[in-house]
Automatic annotation (TrEMBL):
Domain of life: Bacteria
Transmembrane parts of this sequence: 17-37, 44-66
Organism: Rhodococcus wratislaviensis (Tsukamurella wratislaviensis)
Keywords: Membrane, Transmembrane, Transmembrane helix
UniProt-recorded name of the protein: Uncharacterized protein
Length: 76
């Protein structure tokens, strides 16, 4: 399965996917803890963290699509 989607150096791709995923999960867990607060400031900050995490995941997906020499990559 990995060879079909990521020919070449699989370790770099796996590590980068794991790093981006872990960062997003940690950010969302911190935001969830802040969002349970009754403070509007903390809730707003939590929503900002979640938004930034999701935007970061989107940029990572675009980066992978452009730079990975995969079967369905954007770059030739």
């Amino acid at each position: 399965m990995v060879d079909a989607h990521f020919p070449g150096n699989h370790a770099d791709v796996s590590v980068e996917f794991a790093a981006v995923g872990a960062e997003a999960v940690i950010s969302i867990l911190i935001a969830a803890a802040l969002f349970t607060s009754r403070s509007a400031t903390k809730r707003g900050f939590a929503l900002g963290i979640v938004t930034a995490a999701l935007v970061g995941l989107e940029f990572a997906a675009i980066h992978f699509a452009i730079n990975i020499d995969a079967k369905y990559a954007v770059a030739p």
